[in-house]
DNA sequence: GAACACCCATGCGGATCCTGCTGGTCGAGG
DNA sequence: CCTCGACCAGCAGGATCCGCATGGGTGTTC
């Protein structure tokens, strides 16, 4: 996990950085708010660990507010000697996700950092493909166009999926044979043509704009007109 | 925001519920783990606030583990009188997202709950379900146990999916007929038995721990032993 | 321990579904 | 006009899938 630590106290910083690294994470360290902001804004981190009070104009709260203002949603854990409830509330309200007061047990810091990093921000797998008004839902194996459900066969589904994953690019017959049919040779028949035809028939029935274009001597391409 | 509060202490529950409601949130309350699990599994909440220790078999940690096993990723805040670092770490490691010790200031609870709810995690569709070493990938329509791929028929897949979505709960025959077969009547045959049997055969071949348990006169249940 | 209800496993047969091929037609490009 | 690539309707073999019936277990109740 990539973690950014912004902490001015060299002693604390060393201690935290070492521990996180030993737990298998990558840690970048900045000693003041300005550097921290720069790093956080330019690189992608899974979790930010920020000291609440920092030297220089940019303290922890400012830093988070700025990041959030830029649309950066990285989870933030505040680390602070300010224990008052009001301070904690302020940190959370500013956009922090957690708040740990010094002194703290490293085990808890680690657990909290990992809890923050556990969030599904990183790996959101694509679950639906979309080209113009045509949608393909990988989860339910469902195809809809303009909201109307369209029944397709498994092979047709694979074919369409492959086309849509390469929307706007020409897909050659050889690629299709490889990826959709698992043929590693030329079957010497027009299987592909037939399936493309069937697919077109289903997709375009009742619509005017055809979606699948043939590219002569090359293959097929799907594209939002 | 929709919040589920699972807390057995009536006094605390009333206090928290009232406060959250006054802050403009909708609060459901369950007084024990079993009810809490049921609610959390059947309805969608933005945040779960769980007492760490609960009467009855299902305590806070068990509850979270079960939910996470079902692929439910709702953020969880633990509320507990157990202040030891080890306890806090345990709660977070189990899948909790935050941990607040009693007594607490309501302002801080509110700030933390709102910080949790702020996350974009709410509507990430589940793409894989897991129970013990059995995994079901909705995207690829694939079932694996202990890393080994298992081929299942469509109907078997739906059956298994439904069981896994309700892991740890008994699933009645009527529910299965409704949800898996779309029958709204009793077909007077043993269709279900047959499919459960086939599924068991495939899932348990080569493993020792059986996964699907039958609950006499009630239905079936899948659970990590 | 007998009767009963419930549950399990297996084999079978029908139905559906799926897919690739053929063969004839069309149309673009030269 | 000729040729080649692309298109499409229909067909038929096969595979898959699914539900049912049957007969055998197992736990429960009286």
TrEMBL record, chains A, B:
<keyword id="KW-0238">DNA-binding</keyword>
<dbReference type="Pfam" id="PF00072">
    <property type="entry name" value="Response_reg"/>
</dbReference>
<dbReference type="InterPro" id="IPR001789">
    <property type="entry name" value="Sig_transdc_resp-reg_receiver"/>
</dbReference>
<feature type="modified residue" description="4-aspartylphosphate">
    <location>
        <position position="51"/>
    </location>
</feature>
<keyword id="KW-0597">Phosphoprotein</keyword>
<feature type="domain" description="OmpR/PhoB-type">
    <location>
        <begin position="126"/>
        <end position="224"/>
    </location>
</feature>
<dbReference type="InterPro" id="IPR001867">
    <property type="entry name" value="OmpR/PhoB-type_DNA-bd"/>
</dbReference>
<dbReference type="Pfam" id="PF00486">
    <property type="entry name" value="Trans_reg_C"/>
</dbReference>
<protein>
    <submittedName>
        <fullName>Response regulator transcription factor</fullName>
    </submittedName>
</protein>
<feature type="DNA-binding region" description="OmpR/PhoB-type">
    <location>
        <begin position="126"/>
        <end position="224"/>
    </location>
</feature>
<dbReference type="InterPro" id="IPR039420">
    <property type="entry name" value="WalR-like"/>
</dbReference>
<feature type="domain" description="Response regulatory">
    <location>
        <begin position="2"/>
        <end position="117"/>
    </location>
</feature>
